[in-house]
Specification:
The protein has a 5-stranded mixed β-sheet with strand order 6-5-14-9-10. Strands 7, 8, 11, 12 and 13 form a 5-stranded antiparallel β-sheet that branches. The chain contains 11 helices and 22 strands. It is α+β, with helices and mostly antiparallel strands and about 600 residues long. The two termini are about 55 Å apart.
Length: about 600
């Protein structure tokens, strides 16, 4: 785990020299998203909503943690091989970073360097876990007692054993300090046993000594001799097989501290770069649009408790994309290139170039194709930007109906996302735009700053490219955009839908007049009628809010004379083309969900 931490923190530091998106977790997460089958993507969106990216990142960290644990166990037994296994981490991260649609070779460096450092840390720490060999038992030797004049004690030979004329097992008595006696008994193996009598009682206590050593009897002052001293007992050695705990703790602590410093410095430097991009956004002043949006009619927002407001605040606007790290683009350095088939005058424009052009302002409702029946991934905002059709005509582009050779406009974002839109739709007169502002302010970073693309009436995956940097004219036969490669349809007009916002599912309103309210949308066609029914009974016409425009959703309400019990409320909408929502349920793949929204409530 310590080695894994080192890998991530060092990679964070190295990513400063490349870009934040090259860090291992982001790179691996992006690669996972790119290879996620549609059913799994829909499962994540349905169950985790806009928290799906956080769940993915936590899952990646959990897998890395398990991998680190396994590598650690292996390294404790096979130090070199176990440490080398960590390099697999670097290979996977480097491959994931380079293989992304916007990947470049330098993106491999953070993962590669992080893995090498992790392997070194693991090798070092595994070394401290090596078991110590059992200590060698020192050879015992006898220490002869010496007299006060330095001569060998009486009765001891040159080797410390009994002297000449002294048989093993004899006892020698010497006076104690207070008149008591101390006797030294020589054991049969040359060892001694010393018995010291207590001063007051004259009793004698025998203490056996090891068979091979000697302990001289203590001499009292009157004896005039020096007692033989026993050799000091060595400190207990570590048990055989124990590892160097102190060394491990020191090394692990040092690695954690160094990793924390590296990771902290890397995060600080990356944050500093992001702050520069944020500063460019704060300095932007959007000019008044040449074609402003008309005021929202007073009756367009019914202001019923629980009903979605007509204009969705930026902080509440849904976000569905594949970016684990929200790109922070410096507006002063941003450029958009327009090129490809049928482009006779290729263009490259900057952010300031767009600000100087004629700007339009429109209320437009966006919808994600991943929005299930009754789902939350729809929102309405006031956008300001440049007409996309004007830019394309300036580049010499003609729609297919006018003989143009290109039928697909491929938008590319800074994170490698590609979105394909029909050229005919973009240039048919609707308010398709390159948006610069949202609800009176520059685009938030999460919603595409500095510039994003909008095409009213099309699901976001075929029209709403965020962080756009390139527009290429081509054909649907020649190129499949990101989501088309993953089984979604090439073209996807938004389907007529409606939703009940209040009462909520499983609510318990009181019997009597209960307002049932919600929103309905059919962008670029408009909503003509909304109907509600209870428990499968006859359809009742709802009151529609005033229409602000055909590219926005429309609120509705119906006063329900509720009676006690459990009831099912169901809604359907009819657009201005005369199409009424079908009751046939279909999932979001390949081009949007169908069916009618219903809620169950318990009236009390």
């Amino acid at each position: 785990m310590v080695a894994g931490l080192a890998a991530l923190c060092v990679a964070e530091l190295v990513s400063v020299a490349v870009r934040p998106e090259a860090s291992p977790v982001t790179a691996v997460g992006g690669a996972f998203i790119d290879r996620t089958p549609p059913w799994l993507k829909e499962f994540a969106v349905r169950n985790f909503g806009t928290d799906d990216k956080l769940v993915l990142q936590l899952g990646i960290l959990a897998v890395l943690g398990l991998f680190a644990l396994a590598a650690g166990v292996f390294a404790a037994r096979r130090r070199v091989a176990g440490s080398a296994v960590v390099l697999v981490f670097g290979v996977v991260g480097a491959w994931a970073a380079v293989e992304r649609p916007d990947g470049h070779l330098p993106d491999a460096w953070p993962s590669a360097v992080g893995a090498v450092v992790a392997a070194g840390v693991l090798y070092l720490l595994a070394g401290t876990l090596t078991a110590r060999p059992a200590p060698t038992k020192p050879e015992a030797r006898r220490v002869p007692a010496a007299r006060g004049n330095g001569e060998p004690a009486e009765g001891s030979g040159p080797d410390g054993g009994p002297g000449p004329g002294r048989a093993a097992g004899t006892t020698t008595a010497t006076p104690g300090p207070s008149g008591g006696a101390t006797s030294t008994a020589h054991g049969p193996s040359g060892g001694t046993t010393t018995a010291a009598s207590e001063p007051a009682t004259g009793t004698t206590t025998a203490t056996p000594e090891p068979a091979t050593g000697t302990t001289a009897a203590p001499q009292g002052p009157s004896a005039g001799s020096t007692a033989a001293l026993a050799e000091p007992t060595p400190a207990p050695a570590p048990a055989p097989g124990a590892f160097d705990r102190r060394g491990f703790v020191i090394a692990a602590s040092a690695a954690v501290a160094a990793s924390a410093v590296a990771g902290g410095v890397g995060r600080h430097l990356n944050t500093t770069e992001l702050a520069k991009a944020a500063a460019t956004r704060e300095d932007i002043v959007l000019p008044p649009p040449a074609s402003p949006a008309r005021p929202v009619p007073a009756g367009a927002d019914l202001r019923i408790p629980g009903l979605s407001p007509f204009t969705t605040p930026n902080k509440d606007f849904y976000r569905v994309d594949t970016a684990l790290v929200v790109p922070r683009v410096d507006a002063s350095a941003w450029r958009l290139r327009i090129h490809g088939t049928g482009v006779t005058r290729p263009l490259t424009v900057g952010f300031d170039d767009l600000l100087r052009r004629e700007l339009i302002e429109r209320d437009i409702t966006l919808t994600c194709v991943s929005n299930e029946v009754g789902g939350p991934y729809v929102g309405n905002a006031r956008w300001i930007g440049v007409r996309l059709a004007d830019l394309l005509r300036e580049a010499g582009v003609r729609p297919p109906s006018d003989g143009g050779p290109a039928d697909q406009l491929v938008a590319r974002s800074v994170d490698g996302m590609t979105i394909g839109s029909p050229v005919e739709t973009v240039m048919d007169g609707r308010d398709a735009m390159l948006a610069l502002g949202m609800n009176g302010e520059p685009l938030p970073f999460a919603h595409g700053f500095p510039v994003r693309m909008l095409v009213p009436g099309l699901y976001g995956y075929v029209s709403a490219c965020k962080w756009i940097q390139d527009l290429e004219l081509t054909t649907f036969d020649a190129y499949d955009a990101y989501w088309v490669k993953r089984t979604w349809s090439r073209e996807a007009p938004i389907k007529t839908q409606s939703r009940i916002d209040t009462p909520r599912p499983f609510a318990s309103p009181k019997a009597g007049r209960v307002p049932v309210a919600g929103v309905a949308w059919a962008q670029h066609r408009g909503i003509a009628r909304v109907e509600v029914r209870v428990d499968g009974g006859p359809w009742q016409s709802a009151r529609l809010a005033e229409e602000s425009g055909r590219d926005t959703w429309r609120q509705w309400t119906w006063e329900w004379p509720a009676t006690a019990g459990s009831h099912t409320l169901e809604v359907r909408a009819t657009d201005r083309d005369g199409y009424t929502q079908t009751d046939r349920r279909a999932g979001t793949v390949p081009n949007g969900a169908t069916g009618r929204h219903s809620v169950v409530v318990a009236v009390t």
